[in-house]
């Protein structure tokens, strides 16, 4: 007896739709009784062919129903059946009385090849024509028959084009098996096999698996060879164990037909003479057949007999009898009765004890303790049989697979109870199984009718399990299906269930699949889809502004669509719905050939589509509720586990592809609904990640996901065609949206939980990676970009102001979003403006190459408008760096001038940049523009022209600018004047050696003192040899000195000349060398510069420029200047400086002085040491000159002598010449 744990299946296995099969109504409320008075009539057998349904009942009636196909013009119509005839097959009353109770119509065997139908009614076989059920073969009957069948399953019995071949069947009589060939015109016995008491047979080619009331055997119907296999009941030990597995020749023999030998070697030699070394089973039927010479189809002693019998059979025998002669065979017109197979299984017997009586048969009963079990034989493959054994009707049954040699082929099957009836559907070799249209190779299932015990009592149903998988050590998965689980009313679980594989399959349409997989138009808004769900007045100003702008965009978008030449045709949505439904209807069809009946109802056992199985699993995971949300953590885990089972599964058909996508979408929506609406318990990171992966992997339109979030629903963009999703997904989403009326909804983005915002950030970022897929409309990415931007802006509010974007940060994602472009440009501008993120807005403009808007946005920030992120940094510098990248000259001019007005030095660099993309500005044009709009920047641009480009045209103007700055600073600032005077005094106080005054001034210049820097530039220009108006400049300096002197006089300060270096340069340029040297020596104390001045002729205070050797003065000029300098040194106030500088000058440049003149100028009181060097050099020079002059005279004398000699020689050569004067 099975344990309670085995008798009770889990809820998932008992729930309708969760298993691989479902029941679909074939015929409801069959009129089993002609007058409806007898309610005890039951269905015994069913078969179907070419729209004709044949039903055999316990009332010995054969009902014929004709199928009326559905209306082809109405896709929603279904087929129906009408009763065509009600026939009472003929049967032998004597045979029925002998065999016990009358079971009625026991079997219906269709033979479509020859157009015949065989009926076994009350142990009598009759024959009829198809489909009208007219008697054939002159009313031939076969009495005392236990079973009709044995049609070769490898032969296409439905091939009606070859009627001449006929069909060979097996008639299981009490004493033998008759091999009968049914033709179009007659039925003849072609062979009789001495096999007594057979009750069931299934044949493949010539090999049949046959069962009697106690055991199974393999039988070669052509050679009449038999191998006993096993007992039906493992408790039945009435059969001798030694006979099982040994081949027997039942064609006849004095020893009863058992092939015996004196040794096993002899037996192996007999069964397989060509393989004496074989390791296989020597007693297998295949081995025996291959070891014998093939015989003729009929033995010489046999003759074709008509089927009709009228003689009584000999007494029964369990052992094979000797072959009889044809004359003795002719006398055997009938067999004595054998025990009939039980009409109900053990389970039914347990429920109805009165029907489990043992029929009266003249056979030896099984040994006490064994149970009487109905045999079951199926053939799931072309070379395989399935046999069922057990110990009792309430105990488990075992299914064993054997091949044509009797060897096991697969792992055994276990049935929780011994089956009442059993069928096989599908498998690699079952080409007529129940399978979906457009399907590939189907799985193989065994469906067993049985009774099982549950908590509420006994239930009749179908136990379903796979037979074509190797389950290993794990218990195979089983499913339980009851007729009470179907939609048919009136069915009760205590009604016995019959099941049979029919001759022909029938197509079934799953409207549930059609409803769920049909694409339907979805509106993310409640009510009218053209109106937003929120009132503008209920929002803050930022949201209201955005919604108002979006509404205006939608009106414009709709107006553009309406004006489009490709406008939508009338009733386009209904047309699309119809076409989509027709498409799915073609995929949602399946065929079935397995019929199930209980009471007066008949169903098709149809392969349950994967979609319905997974849908049922979802319902079970959510406690069977219709709500989209998932209640607790366990339910979430169940849904995620379900999604894991289909993750990575490759779809084999288009229907399966759509199914997997649909389930991922719907399950993900259910998880997301819970994620959004249930604060506790929170999703773990792993659960959130799995939900995100399935939302993305299911290819669900992102707008559907956003429709679940009221705060983002108004970011959804929908064109006139709308959003099309699976009907089942649409119902789930709309159910969640409709529940907002009773659930407080979050209307603003800042009200969303942080974990929801983070989810949206990841989900929408991943969705953007699908850009470029042609199958996704542009409106999806417009929605995704707008929503993602809104989420990132909300999250980035927590980022510190001015912080740089770091990898992985929200700000970095925000920058990446706008830098790579968004499809919702106008909406993005509105959002960025509403959040006050001007810098991010400028980046958006930059991506779209909108330079004017970029600069305008930066200008707003620089001029003080709030940028909440404060990311711009140095805005003026950023503008300056950006302008060279612009090719629009007018735009460069506008913002160059604006920048020059704010930061003259920086703004001038825009006009001075020679690498910019815009056309170059002419200097005169720039100067004019700057003078008018940014006058403070003119000086910097002139500096660029003069110092950078070497242009002399603007030297005078630049000098005037510098003078204005320097003089203005001196006039306005007493401190500046004091600083200048202090610089003179400080320089004079320095002891030699010391730098020149210009170097001293440069080294001590304050870094940010514009006046000081301007003076240095002024000195550089004045002393640089440029062509400028020196007189005008001198006049300006003199007037400035005069004005400064008046200021000093008024203030009581001593009158001093402040611009000394400038005056020196101008005096030198005007050839007033004495004045210049005087200022250098006495005002500045710059003695080295004074010496340089003399050497250069007063041309410049600066170093001599390269390549200007021709500018050096003549020696006479230098001598004159050195004489003036010596005179100035001799009148220095400081005696030490006077002696030191005079001695140094005479020592270094004594060659430019006359010794006598110097001696006359040097005071007599000075030490000789002061002029010793000069005098020694002068004497040496005098001696050198005297020697040079003497040498010159000597050389001249020699030259004179040489010339006179040459003259005399020439005279002698010429001779005397007479000059006669006339």
Describe it for me?
There is one protein chain. The relative contact order is 0.05. The protein is 40% helix and 16% strand. β12 (177-182) and β13 (187-193) form a beta hairpin. It is elongated. Strands 1, 25, 29, 31 and 32 form a 5-stranded antiparallel sheet that branches. Residues 1-13, 254-306, 309-365, 487-491, 529-545, 556-565 and 1102-1110 have low confidence and may be disordered. It is built from 40 helices and 33 strands.
Mean pLDDT over all positions:
80
Rounded to an integer, what's the Rg over CA atoms?
60 Å
The class by helix and strand makeup works out as alpha+beta
The percent of residues in helical segments reads 40-55%
What proportion of the residues form beta strands (DSSP E)?
15-25%
The total beta strand count reads 33
- Inertia-based shape: elongated
Distance between the termini: 185 Å
The profile of the biggest β sheet is: 5 strands, antiparallel
How many helix segments? Answer: 40
- Which regions are unreliable across 5 or more consecutive residues at pLDDT < 50? 1-13, 254-306, 309-365, 487-491, 529-545, 556-565, 1102-1110
Subcellular location: Cytoplasm
GO cellular component, one term: membrane
Domain CNH: 40-474
Protein name: CNH domain-containing protein
